[in-house]
Every structure is written in C-alpha cells, then in structure tokens.
Amino acid sequence: MAMETLERVLAEHPFFKGLERPYLQLLAECASRVRFDAGEVIFREGEESNLFYLIRHGKVAVETFAPNRGPITIQTLGEGEVLGWSWLIEPYRRRFDARSVELTRAIAIDGQCIRGRCEEDHDFGYELMKCVAHVMDKRLQATRLQLLDVYDGIRS
Amino acid sequence: MTAFALEKQARMTGLSDPMVPSPFRVQRVQRETYDTFTLELEPANGADGFSFAPGQFNMLYMFGLGEVPISISGDPTKPQTLVHTVRSVGAVTQVLRRLKRGDVLGVRGPFGSHWPVEEAAGSDVVIVAGGIGLAPLRPVLYYLLSNREKYGRIVLVYGARTLQDMLYKVELEKWRGQFDLEVEVTVDTAAASYRGNVGVVTTLIPRVQFDPLHTVAMVCGPEVMMRFTLRELEARDVGPESIFISMERNMKCAIGACGHCQFGPTFVCKDGPVFRYDRIQAFFAKREV
Fold it and tell me: How far apart are CA B84 and CA B70, in angstroms?
C-alpha cells in the first residue's frame, strides 16, 4: 500500500481522529497491512508487545484463561477499534490473548518504531498519548460497568 | 392525571374501575431463561381483547397473594393475546412462574405512558435494551416492523449478562436476518467458543449507524446501564429531547394515588414509565431521588 494511502486510512480511523497530518506521516512510516483468518491467534499473553492494530474489518476476541473455566472472552473488538496498548507501557508484554473471530483486516503499527518517534518528538508523543488515553478511558468505563453486573436487578 | 382522565382511560380499556382486576386465562407459558418466562393470556370474561400502547404496563394479580407491575411485551397489533415476560424474583412472580395453561389470574391496566412510536415516524430509531429491559421494548419492534416504511434506519442494541440470560433468542435471530433492521447483541461474559460480541451494551453504541440529528432513541434496562447509555448517546450527538427511557420504581396502585412510585415531581406509574429524558434530566441522576 502506498504511503499516501496508508496515511489516508490512518486519518480515517477513529483512533487517530483529529491527529495532524505530519503525525499521520510519522505513523504511516511505521504501519503495514495485516490479515488474520478466522480463529487465528494474533498474540498470546506474556509475549513481547511491539505491535498494535487498527481494526478495519472483522472481529477480534480479547481472551484470558482461567483454571476450571478455560478460555474466556473478555471483550470483542470490531471495525474502527484498536487492539493492544501494552506496546506503550513497560515491560511491553501482552496482558491478554487476542484471537481473530472472523476474517479480520487491520493496520499493524510498530510500537517500537512509534516509541522511538515519541522520544524524538514529545509533542507527537503527547498527541498520541491523548489518543491512547481516550481508548483507555472508554475501556475502563466499560470494565467498571461489566464489574457492576448490572443485570442482577429486578426489573420486569 | 385527573379523576376524569382516569375514568376515561378505564372506559377505553373496558374496565369500570382501574382498581378492579379482570380475569385472564393462561393460554401458554414459554420459558425464556432459567428465571424468566413469558405468559400468553386471554380474557376470561368474554372480552374481545386487550388494547395497549408499546411501553405500558399491567398489574398482574395472584388472587390472595398480591400484585406486581409487569410491562406488556406482546404485539400491539394483535390485541387478542396479552403477553407478559416476567422475571421470577419475588413472592408473587415466583407463584406466577408456576402458572399452567388454563389457570386464571387478575389483570389491571394498561397503565402509564408509552414509547413515542408514532412521533418517531420519519426518523431513525435506535433501541437500546439491557437484560429484561428488552421486554417493554419488544412491542416497539413489532410496531415499527409492521409500519416499516414510515421509519429510517431501525437499530436494536441488546445486552445481556450471558448468552443464557438472553431473551427472545428465536426472534432476535429472525430480526437479525432481516435486511431492514440492524441488530447488535452483546453479552458481558462468554466462553471463548462464543463467536458473538462480548462487552457491555454501551460499547456497541459507537459502532451502530444512525443519523443523530434525526434519531429517536428508546432505552430500557437497569438504571445504571441506562445512565451509561445516555452518556454514549449524548456522545453521538443525540439530543436529550430525542431520548426516551423507561423508569422503574415501586408501583402499587398504578394510578398515581398511593405515591409509592414517586420519582422527583412525577409518579412513574402515571407520568411514566416512559419519560422523555430532557424532562427528567435534572433529577434523573440524583441519588436522593
């Protein structure tokens, strides 16, 4: 995919909404297209984390394994969402498994490459951190709601 | 509502007194989940049927035991059968659960406000339901689908705790297969073998397509789920005047006389259960209310 096309795809993705063009160029230099077949493992818990993914099509299950319960899906991510942020936080290890539920197409971004750019250009790092913080906030809210087990009410 | 209006409502519903239950016979009992079931009822006094508007509720009376307010979950275009989906959680609902075909119970109603199905004509309609909150919204879907040409996009977003807790699975599958209805379903937790969506219902709202400037949203579920849903709808630029929610309080008389279901300056039984959000926004999230 040409660099300009990648840049356009990144600009259109909700994760990078509002990011300025020079930053999108930086990101595009570290990005590539990927495809996962249904059932394919994208990464496993404990692995080194150097990539994150912008999902363009398909569905990915974020999973963990619990003794006596087996593999459990914690969350499903779809088009327009981002998979993985452990590339940004030391010790850069995956916290969960990720598996493609159906054919999934995504843009993979090299987190190591991006970390380097962030160190060189702190303004870029700050803008990128805002994008990640937004996703983290949404996921944290969803997790808290999940923990509330809201359907235990008595509504009829 | 004035005494005159109550009397008028009573006449319209064929009841001489809104406090007097009418006998209804159980036609069919359908088990939905481990604790939830659907009753199909017919009048046992020779009446033609039971007209209601989507979103209204009835008081179901187990003779000698007590009454419970239960939303009507059937098809408003088929008034010959009265349908209620009930979650068995208390003394009365546990006895309701043991009803069999041919048993008789008392019904008072219909009571309360309704979803704005006619007012939503010309708009996209987004229905967000959580858990058993799908039951009061099912009549909306029946109505919208029988008047499909009047509406833009119709989106159903439904969340349940697990796949086993999901209501109306057969209908959900059927609706999902229709080209003129977008159905997004999610569960809070699932085994990895489940291929559907996992996550709370609010996570689906950013994913669905609708025109926020021409959308009517109808939301029903546990109050905390509705609170988070409202935030997501507002983030999608749906105005509070276009959002309707169904509230639940301890309803007893159902005619605004006893005050048990007071909700700020309103009574849920007669001013609700369906409220336009901007009209209750000021006190919706107040803990004391």
Answer: 7
pLDDT digits (tens, 9 = 90+) for A8-30: 899 999 999 889 999 999 999 99
Buried b / exposed e along B210-245 (16+ C-beta atoms within 10 A): bebeebbbbbbbbbebbbbbbebbeeeebebebbbb
Q: Which A residues, 86 through 125, put their C-beta within 8 Å of a C-beta on chain B?
A: 99, 101-102
pLDDT in tens, B116-136: 999 999 999 999 999 999 999
Contact B189 A102 (CB under 8 A): no
Q: In sequence order, what DSSP letters do the residues of B90-156 get, joined into one string?
A: SHHHHHHTT--TT-EEEEEEEES----TTTTTTSEEEEEEEGGGGGGGHHHHHHHHHTGGG-S-EEE
Cα nearest neighbour of A138 on chain B? B203
* Parts of chain B with a pLDDT under 70: 1-16
Are A146 and B197 an interchain contact pair (Cβ–Cβ within 8 Å)?
no
pTM for this predicted structure: 0.88
Mean pLDDT (chain A, rounded) = 91
Can you tell me the distance from the alpha carbon of A117 to that of A113, in angstroms, rounded to the nearest whole number?
A: 7
Paired residues of B127 in beta bridges: B156, B218
